Amino acid sequence: xxxxxxxxxxxxxxxxxxxxxxxxxxxxxxxxxxxxxxxxxxxxxxxxxxxxxxxxxxxxxxxxxxxxxxxxxxxxxxxxxxxxxxxxxxxxxxxxxxxxxxxxxxxxxxxxxxxxxxxxxxxxxxxxxxxxxxxxxxxxxxxxxxxxxxxxxxxxxxxxxxxxxxxxxxxxxxxxxxxxxxxxxxxxxxxxxxxxxxxxxxxxxx
Length: 206
Known about the structure:
By secondary structure, this protein is an alpha+beta fold. The protein is built from eight helices and seven strands. It has helices at residues 10-17, 22-26, 34-42, 88-95, 124-129, 154-159, 176-183, 190-203; strands at residues 45-52, 55-62, 69-72, 75-80, 98-104, 111-121, 139-151.
């Protein structure tokens, strides 16, 4: 069924929202500055967005604060740590190097957005440099920055993301095992996963 109220053109979209403020336009740069470098240095978590022939993908990446290395004002290095080997994001990057990153810092309501182009490298010197506790990443994303700008705090303020009063209780958030059991229609035993695999995952983070 066609939605008669759907916005299907850029002109209609721009008329609906109006022009961005001058400040919103001026904040966008093509390289890192001292403040954005400082934000990345304290960030332990980011969301990586990619797009390829199979569609889009959005994945969390996290490690110790500053795990993303800044090599210069237009280049970032993101180590690819141990995961489940689906490599959805990496497949997309091989097909389409365009990436978007959203950096978060616990307790801060502002976020930092970086758009650019990524390539996957297994350069031995980078693998060694970005190892943690003797455990090397499988590969490294070298990201060339096209755009960098701060995102205003409205979304995180509305969500109350860092407010302990808003933290969901363990009994209200479906566990990993429960989610897997539902997704696999019972082929994964959720209770067994939570009892055996969840503790193991913490032991093999790297």
